[in-house]
């Protein structure tokens, strides 16, 4: 079933406080407001303990919120039981039913007697075909995996089955709690593409919690950055990467170097700095180390008058002299606090 | 802005007024149920006893005798409890649950006679050995359940960090095993404290214990004050034990269900030696003299067997389902230890005293002796047994699976039918068979509650044993032992069967 195109997700003033040790308490959500357009892929990033998972569980109804309102389309959902909410969650740990096969896990909703607020119906002949197609799209050959027991799956395979289960007869919004974290790099990239394809085809909105900037930058239409239970920033990921509103957001999305000029404050993305031959740049530097980090080479340089080394990323390793210069464009300097 | 958004929504929302209150206040509902249960099973009988004993006039010599008996009972029971825990651990790693269940059904009087037949002089040692042999199968079953859920990931991580066997045992294995060890030892302790059979037959009257004192005070000497003091002391000792057990069960870590790990050679040798000790009584049942052909008494006992099976089936079904339901529900309440105390409290009272008190309470409530009163009397301890077993085994069902089912839209009934029941099937089977075995073999309670003509097979066998019809007792004791074995084998086959 394709989701309705106009089911925006709106959150107003979500609050959640957990009782801590003794009389203390921990604020997990401190008034979160969100306005998410239907069918978009929204990534949520933040340090550990910033409230990302609590936000997801609160929206799913699995964690009672202290205050706030949640709307999906015209329907207020915070008053609904978790089972009746038009959302589906993919948990960090796959949480598959061990007594059911892969296919039975994927089509679990067909075993439920009632129809939910999504108006989905009981199992029909097309159900198995849809489940097989989903498994195939997520890289699991149904001929091999459909009848397989959950115990006979690897961690990555389990996570893909959990994704297929969430996508089967999908509701308007999918809540993803780091679903790609258990996967190896090539599988991760393949699954990112598959997720993007499925989202487009089905028109499902996805609210995706992740620690990986690469996932967020590759998948998200909108990136929400959280810190200490609040939304720090919300915008297109490329915009937040290039012009982050604050230092915390900037650091979450990628490496930063201080401007290698003792006379000037600010930061630069490592790929915005250039290593040039001596006497051709703006400051003198000395190469300390270089290492290959996948598609880029990361260089560590010392600049006279600066305690911290400067990071520079470039497509090719610097093969010139250790004594070199650094150059940059003033437009690339990020004035962050 | 809504207050406590989603809290009510975690329940099922659109239910009736009573149902809505139950969903919103699960702790209070459970609290009320536990209080009513405690009142019916413990407080009402105890109240009747205290009423009969009022105004508690005890002579100095009586007080001294009670203190001496209690101290002796405490000491001997503590020794039996510690040894049962240690030997039970060896046994749990060596012997399969089917064998343990069969051994569980060998009645204490049969064990006591077998111990004396070994050549032990009647006295404290023979009584303690009898007690240990009697409670060991249960201790090993409980410990075996826990051994199946060892936190392997933690153990591997500790080994990887360089922790040796001792450090791993201290930091991981023991904290994991502790709840089951506590259950096993406390069970043995309470059984010893309230025992009459072992100390009467194997003790030979040389060791007068609280169980014997209560029995004599109530039945032979009409001294309810003496009995009331002892019963109150036993309950006062048992309630903290029950609270400790429940607290440990609550804190028990979740883990996956696996086979009991292969034990080292020395553990296997030690475990088999303990098994050899346990096999004395059943071997005596098999190799001793058996009657030839079927007589009129056999037909009478066959009728009692069918009735006993019916009573045991009803008690096992009720106790297992209620114990399981309470074990599940108590995971949702803020102070589950108090629910556990209410459910486990009946274990504090020796079975025969429990039977006698229930007879009094039943009469006061207009319930005549018969099968119904026997079922009610057996339900108290049986529910405790079902609750502990379910509690030990349902901790392996992770909360994340239930959250996943809720998230996929499953209602309470669907979660029960599609997730809880299939995953908890092993727990239900074990709890059911364990309770069935215990009820079938229980003679002390129905001796008071079954009434004239309403005996169970276990009661009849005790009467025949006293009358010296040992051959007949052997034959029918074997039948009793075979029932849970067959039940386990059938349950195993059922557990493997899956509808296509």
TrEMBL record, chain A:
Record keywords: ATP-binding, Nucleotide-binding, Transport
Annotated ABC transporter domain residues: 9-253
InterPro entries: AAA+_ATPase, ABC_SmlMolc_Importer, ABC_transporter-like_ATP-bd, ABC_transporter-like_CS, P-loop_NTPase
N-terminal signal peptide: none
Cytoplasm among keywords: no
Record carries keyword Transport: yes
GO MF terms held by the record: ATP binding; ATP hydrolysis activity
SMART domains on file: AAA
Record-linked SUPFAM superfamilies: P-loop containing nucleoside triphosphate hydrolases
Protein name per UniProt: Putrescine transport ATP-binding protein PotA
